[in-house]
Design brief:
Blueprint: E1 23-27, H1 32-44, E2 48-53, E3 73-77, H2 83-93, E4 97-100, H3 107-112, H4 115-138, E5 165-171, H5 196-215, E6 219-224, E7 226-228, H6 237-246, E8 251-254, E9 260-265, H7 266-279, E10 285-288, E11 293-295, H8 296-310, E12 323-326, H9 341-347, H10 355-368, H11 370-378, H12 380-389
Bound molecules: nicotinamide-adenine-dinucleotide (NAD).
Nicotinamide-adenine-dinucleotide (NAD) binds near residues 27, 58 and 170.
């Protein structure tokens, strides 16, 4: 049974009712990785999630439709940079942790309009850190369970200052680009971001680090390689290829298609975040990756092959005939590769999927969920937002 807290901070005021289960605050939890994280979290635990998301074009609450009416999940539309809102949510829900996914995340968009990236990824993270610092400073040092205020028979818990954690989700793109012969990125690599997106994420990582060293805020940072999997917005490589292939459209490949990325199935990223949140050393950064370096063109061919097998074209030709090379993106990094040995050795994390199993699941998911794709493409998910969330926004 889920028992949600009614009175946050009640113990310190001597009231008899205190929170029953812990809560976490997730930001950007209606986006691709954040939504997968929330769904996986609530599939495995009864710990409530407050989900703060601005619902930009990338935020899609339809992804979270299965949680409608589930008291463990509350979606709040709002900005991480809105200090009044964030402080109110923290005070009201007393989370024991904050997991920060919220960001502008698409490199191409950052090239055409970097302003939003500076606003959310840098200024927004700064404001979020300040709100969290205010909340964390006010947490009790002792555990209120010891004060004997829990209703009989119920294991009551409350966040403590010592137990609180802020986990910042970041990317391998902050490390810049590798040549063919360079070793994979380790946590000790210097930051050399090349796009407005990666520069803004690098800046946010530095802020998180500084808030730990200067104010003692208990932070953790994860830097992950390219994710793929269900609920990925079809502007990114893998879903774009699947969706365009099925629609009989060209499959646009930048330059020579030999840009190498290191791919991780999204649910493996989520399990890594859960593990770091649980046992990571405060102030540390952990690289997350699946040892799956692949050139983009190979990814496109793999997707085509799977579609040829699972949804063959009526005329018998391969989807690969739709591949079209287009002018490369400016400043396109050639190679990313993640050395995830620290996370594996210290915290015993390992990905559950190989690239072959993960990509098969992903293609199968897109074939089984044409409605989700169609709503994203037509913008119908926006109507879904206004229908289902009207009046529920902060
Ligand atoms: N996608 C990847 O391959 C990848 C890899 C490594 C790290 N990351 C990082 O993981 C995080 C999530 O990535 P994603 O791919 O899910 O991104 P996404 O673009 O799919 O989702 C971002 C979410 O953040 C929300 N958001 C944007 N601005 C906000 C603001 N100011 N306040 C509150 N919410 C806001 C959006 O509405 C959206 O729901 C990002 O920080 C990204 O840098 C992504």
């Amino acid at each position: 049974m889920l028992l949600k807290s009614q009175h946050s901070g009640a113990a310190s005021r001597g009231t008899h009712l205190i929170r029953i289960l812990m809560t976490i605050l997730v930001t950007g939890g209606a986006g691709f990785i954040g939504a997968n994280f929330v769904l996986d979290w609530l599939a495995a635990s009864n710990e409530a999630v407050i989900n703060l998301d601005k619902l930009t074009y990338a935020g899609n609450p339809e992804t979270l439709a299965s949680l409608q009416g589930d008291a463990r999940h509350q979606l709040v539309q709002g900005d991480i940079g809105d200090a009044a809102l964030v402080s109110r949510l923290l005070a009201e829900h007393q989370p024991r942790a904050v997991v920060n996914f919220a960001a502008e995340s698409h490199v191409d968009r950052s090239i055409h309009g970097p302003g939003e990236f500076i606003e959310t990824n840098i200024v927004g993270t700064f404001r979020l850190l300040e709100s969290v610092r205010g909340y964390w400073s006010g947490l009790l040092d002792s555990d209120i369970r010891e004060q004997g205020l829990a209703p009989t028979g119920v294991q009551a818990q409350a966040p403590t200052k010592g137990g609180f954690r802020f986990l910042h989700v970041s990317t391998d793109e902050v490390y810049g680009s590798l040549s063919q012969s360079d070793p994979a990125f380790a946590e000790t690599n210097r930051y050399e971001p090349n796009s407005p997106y990666s520069a803004s994420k690098a800046a946010s990582d530095h802020l998180v680090r500084a808030w730990h060293h200067t104010y003692g805020l208990p932070v953790l940072t994860t830097n992950c390689s390219n994710n793929y999997g269900p609920y990925h917005f079809p502007e990114k490589l893998i879903p774009l290829m699947i969706v365009n292939a099925l629609a009989g459209k060209p499959l646009p490949v930048y330059g020579d298609g030999m840009q190498i990325r290191d791919w991780l199935y999204v649910k493996d990223h989520c399990s890594a975040i859960r593990r770091v949140l649980e046992a990571g050393r405060l102030g540390e950064t952990y690289n997350v990756g699946g040892w799956n370096e692949k050139p983009n063109i190979e990814i496109v061919h793999t997707v085509c092959k799977l579609l040829d097998e699972l949804r063959p074209k009526a005329d018998g030709t391969s989807y690969a005939t739709q591949i079209t090379y287009v002018t490369d993106r400016p400043g396109h990094d050639r190679r990313y590769a993640i050395d995830a040995r620290k996370l594996e050795a210290e915290l015993g994390w390992k990905p559950a999927e190989t690239f072959e199993t993960g990509i098969r699941k992903t293609v199968a998911w897109y074939l089984a969920n044409p409605e989700w794709v169609q709503h994203v493409q037509s913008g119908a998910y926006r109507d879904w937002v206004s229908k289902n969330y009207a009046g529920r926004q902060a």
